Amino acid sequence: MKKLVLLFISIAIIIGALWLLPTQKQYTQKIIINCTPTAATRIISNFNHWKQWWPGEIKNDSIVSYKKSSVKLQTILLNGFYAAFNHPNIPSFIDLQFLSAPDKHSEFIYSYTLYYSPNPFKKAIQFLFQSHEVKQELDSFLKDIKSNLENVNKVYGFEITEERVPNSIHISVKKEFNHLPNNDDIYSLVEALQGYIESNQAKAINDPIYNVFTTNDIHYQLMVAIATDRPLPSKGDFSYKEMVRGKIIIGKAIGPNAAIDECMKQVEYFVKDHGRSSPAIQFNRMISDRRKESDSTKWITTVNYPVFDRSFF
């Protein structure tokens, strides 16, 4: 009889202990991410940019996924978002927000709350066997966000690097047009420059660059230049140009003019996000010879944006 009583008491204690287990538990982490707050705001607050950085699958405009979990977005903020994180074992709610940190970094504050079952026996299984796996997935979620937001390609959609201006000495030519210059217009000047370089027994040492300038979308000025192995004299329409071999931000575009324009926009964002300023006009470098490659989706063009060296400030 005493053993039976003790058994009932033990069972009662165990059930009581299970009832006393919390129904929810919150975890909070802070992490510094090498992504400027302006860039983070731009790509997180606009759902159209989520496919660039989200570390999972985009289902629709309110449902995304990460590993085993379906994630339902509740609210997208200027500096973060709230979402229900529906793991098959334990559902949770995430609150991710960020603020400015030193050196143009962002501090991400990440909280998630695990919601345990009201059933004490299921709750015990969640505590003993499932919570560790769910917590690992939620922790890895933050690490994957950090990895993606520190990837320039994922933040800006293009490969963007900071380098030195590769060539100083150039020969250039300008021409006015009453329309946006096209490939034929650009290559007519490229061929004129190539002829001038050859006539002076010099050599071109890099791909042609060009810049289009307009103030009214009616009159356009096209400038094309080619780097040479030695200075060539200015003569007629041809002008000697010398670039300062300072720092330059370079974005790589693959595709037609629309891709180049978008790359330029993203390079300008990159420059502004990092508080840089430019001492000279930006220009495009034609890596692909468009006369030989008729498929514009394969054109490779770099967008080049000279910037002041950080050490000057």
Can you describe what's shown?
It contains seven helices and 15 strands. The protein is α+β, with helices and mostly antiparallel strands. The strands form two sheets. It has an eight-stranded antiparallel β-sheet with strand order 8-13-15-14-10-11-9-12. The chain has a seven-stranded antiparallel β-sheet with strand order 1-7-6-5-4-3-2. A hairpin with a 3-residue loop joins strand 6 (91-101) and strand 7 (105-115). The longest helix is centred in the middle third of the chain and has 30 residues, at 120-149. It is elongated. Mean pLDDT is 91; it is low at 4-8 and 10-14.
List keywords for this structure.
313 residues; alpha+beta; Alpha-D-Glucose-1,6-Bisphosphate, Chain A, domain 4; 2 domains; seven-stranded antiparallel sheet; 7 helices; elongated
